[in-house]
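User: Could you go from structure to sequence for me? I need the amino acid at each position, not a summary. Structure tokens:
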């Protein structure tokens, strides 16, 4: 490696290291300012000193004199505080924070190739030099961990700040880049032991995850090939049987066929073993890659303490920040996307929510306001909230501003706060009045496939809750067919599934709606029509997915429900990135691409279409006469399977566990039972045994649908009396419908 490459590499490493040290400075300065005499003050000072010392050595290694000088002055001030010679006040902390800001700005200038001597570093140097103890420093090396014995050399005039470092300073003349190597800085005292941490570029992790996703697709295709091989084996077996019946004297050829079938069975067994081995390896690799991408939630909150502290002082308020769930590990892409919304919400809480000290005293509140930022996982969803104990939203001001802007009345009056350009501020400042804060929040959260909800209580505070997927790389989705295309609808956006009868469709205000139980009617749209896809005559409208989205829930009629599964999300290319109705894509095991719908945008587009009626529903097909009893404790799975069976023409009766299913079986009867295994009160295996032990229903066809996929579990299902066993992980509606049709002896 030549000297120029070495210099560039060292500078790049320094730029990666700099934000960590700046973060440590801000974090410890904030804690020290809050509790200057607290139990942890000594450790905070040591951490500050280590950060300044390490950054100083690193800056010296790459020849960044301005950064080195700032860090040297920080060392002097911190040593004076440690020795009790200097007690920093509000003004001193302001200078120290300015130094941290100047170091942060230095990274931006280095990345842009700008001079450091013309930036904030130059302005903060004289302030640091004027800070600290007024008496001259003690005659010892002030920055070494402990005093050194005096050297025998004659005293020299005080050297430049860089010469105070215990290690030899570089020569005054510019040194060639090769001289940078031996002057490596001391490692930070907080650094992890060798091998425990490694810096990896985010782009490399994304590429590794993409390769992992391709392996998963390959494994699924291999599983389909295994199924195809099984079909070929069955066909060969039938051919062999037919040959025996038709030609009895062809013994040799029959023997060859028998051997060919044996070879095929061995090949199938080998293929199954290979597929399982690949599956285990892929699953393990996929899990490890995802773990590498995980970072604590506190990463998204970096800088919030400092931003709130500065804004509160500017507004003359006292504000305490509390972060709950800081250690919760989340996907890096989610954390990156949360930084801007959290900053905007925190600043909005301080500027608009928390009252001035006098007003808080008058209302009996604590003088110090509170902003609580919390994160929690709820299943596959992440819930992040920002809550303050301020005055709440001024609804009168919101209504007045809405009228001034001519905005239509909304069911949720607070929803207008997220409209672009909307603000209730009386004057424009550097923080508020431009109406971009909450608009940024909504935009970013929508990009993350999430939702935002604001609630407020007058005089008590405001809470903004963001609901997001736990990861952007995988997604539990419902695969549907509409307009000849396979589309993926995020499962979190699907409220329920149902099969509609044409008689249930009504027209209200020129828009078709479908009944929604005890709630208001739900507008219903053809998904193919909303997406400008060709509609299939006589199919669209039989199956409906009720989706949650803006401006209100909507029902979308599709041609078929295909399956519910975990899919790998791939980002759209630059040409399709701005396609509003599409959030991404996934590659199916067949090799085809399915687009992932942005439900909020699809719903908005549906409501913008006016005067559309008459869904292309099949109004001639009679209702089913074959009854199926479906038992499953999962509402989502139960809704999916029910919709599939009803769309095929069956009458479906549902139960939440085996006990209820057995009771319904005696009360209403059934032609076939489909049951989960793991259920409360009575599980599926016990239900099987109870049905087989009943004289009335002992010959009733029974199908088990379970997430248990081992051979032992299948055997237990057979021993309990099940006629068929379908695994949920590979669930496909065709498997279920084919199995049910075979057991019932034909179509519904």
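Assistant: Here is the amino acid at each position, in order:
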């Amino acid at each position: 490696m030549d000297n120029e490459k070495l210099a560039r590499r060292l500078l790049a490493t320094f730029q990666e290291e700099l934000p960590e040290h700046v973060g440590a400075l801000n974090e410890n300065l904030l804690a020290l300012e809050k509790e200057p005499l607290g139990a942890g003050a000594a450790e905070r000072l040591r951490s500050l000193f280590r950060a300044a010392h390490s950054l100083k050595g690193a800056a010296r290694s790459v020849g960044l004199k301005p950064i080195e000088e700032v860090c040297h002055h920080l060392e002097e001030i911190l040593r004076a505080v440690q020795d009790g010679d200097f007690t920093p006040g509000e003004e001193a902390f302001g200078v120290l924070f300015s130094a941290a800001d100047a170091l942060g700005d230095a990274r931006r200038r280095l990345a842009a190739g700008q001079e450091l001597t013309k930036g904030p570093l130059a302005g903060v140097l004289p302030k640091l030099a004027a800070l600290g103890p007024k008496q001259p420093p003690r005659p010892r090396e002030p920055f070494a961990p402990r005093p050194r014995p005096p050297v025998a050399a004659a005293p020299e005039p005080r050297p430049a700040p860089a010469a105070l470092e215990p290690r030899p300073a570089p020569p005054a003349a510019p040194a060639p880049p090769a001289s940078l190597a031996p002057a490596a800085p001391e490692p930070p005292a907080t650094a992890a032991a060798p091998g425990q941490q490694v810096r990896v570029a985010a782009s490399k992790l994304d590429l590794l995850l993409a390769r992992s996703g391709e392996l998963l697709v390959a494994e699924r295709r291999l599983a389909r090939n295994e199924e195809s091989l099984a079909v070929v084996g069955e066909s060969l077996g039938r051919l062999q049987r037919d040959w025996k019946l038709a030609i009895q004297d062809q013994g040799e050829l029959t023997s060859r066929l028998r051997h060919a079938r044996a070879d095929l069975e061995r090949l199938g067994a080998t293929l199954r073993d290979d597929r399982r081995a690949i599956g285990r390896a892929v699953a393990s690799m996929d899990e490890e890659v995802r773990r590498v991408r995980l970072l604590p939630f506190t990463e998204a909150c970096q800088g919030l303490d400092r931003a709130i502290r500065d804004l509160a002082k500017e507004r003359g308020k006292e504000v305490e920040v509390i972060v709950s769930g800081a250690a919760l590990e989340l996907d890096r892409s989610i954390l990156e996307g949360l930084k801007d919304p959290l900053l905007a919400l925190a600043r909005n809480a301080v500027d608009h929510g928390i009252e001035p000290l006098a007003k808080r005293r008058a209302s009996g509140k604590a003088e110090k306001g509170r902003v609580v930022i919390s994160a929690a996982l709820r299943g596959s969803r992440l819930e992040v909230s920002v809550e303050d104990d301020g005055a709440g939203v001024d609804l009168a001001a919101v209504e007045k501003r809405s009228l001034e802007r001519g905005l239509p009345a909304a069911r949720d009056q607070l929803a207008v706060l997220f409209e672009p350009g909307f603000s209730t501020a009386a004057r424009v400042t550097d923080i508020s009045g431009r109406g971009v804060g909450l608009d940024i929040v909504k935009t970013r959260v929508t990009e993350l496939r999430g939702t935002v909800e604001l609630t407020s209580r007058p005089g008590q505070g405001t809470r903004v809750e963001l609901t997001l997927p736990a990861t952007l790389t995988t997604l539990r989705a419902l695969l549907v067919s509409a307009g000849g295309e396979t589309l993926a609808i995020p499962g979190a956006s699907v409220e329920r599934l149902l099969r509609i009868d044409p008689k249930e469709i009504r027209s209200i205000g020129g828009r078709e709606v479908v009944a929604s139980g005890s709630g208001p009617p739900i507008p219903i749209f053809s998904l193919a029509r909303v997406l400008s896809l060709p509609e299939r005559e006589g199919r669209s409208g039989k199956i409906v997915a009720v989706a949650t989205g803006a401006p209100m829930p909507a029902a979308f009629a599709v041609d078929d429900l295909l399956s519910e599964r975990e899919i790998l999300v791939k980002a759209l290319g630059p040409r399709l990135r701005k396609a509003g109705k599409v959030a991404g894509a996934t590659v199916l095991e067949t090799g085809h691409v399915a687009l992932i719908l942005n439900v909020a945008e699809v719903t908005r587009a549906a409501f913008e279409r006016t005067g559309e009626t008459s869904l292309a529903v099949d109004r001639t097909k009679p209702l089913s006469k074959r009854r199926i009893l479906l038992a499953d404790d999962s509402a989502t799975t139960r809704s999916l399977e029910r919709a599939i069976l009803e769309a095929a023409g069956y009458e479906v009766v549902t139960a939440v566990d085996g006990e209820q299913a057995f009771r319904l079986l005696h009360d209403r009867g059934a032609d076939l039972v489909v049951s989960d295994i793991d259920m409360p009160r009575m599980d599926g295996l016990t239900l099987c045994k109870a049905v087989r032990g009943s004289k009335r229903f002992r010959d009733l066809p029974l199908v088990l649908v379970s997430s248990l996929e081992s051979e032992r579990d299948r055997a237990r299902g057979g021993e309990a009396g099940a006629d068929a066993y379908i695994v949920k992980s590979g669930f496909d509606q065709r498997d279920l419908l084919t199995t049910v049709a075979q057991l019932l002896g034909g179509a519904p």
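One structural detail worth keeping in mind: The mean pLDDT is 75.
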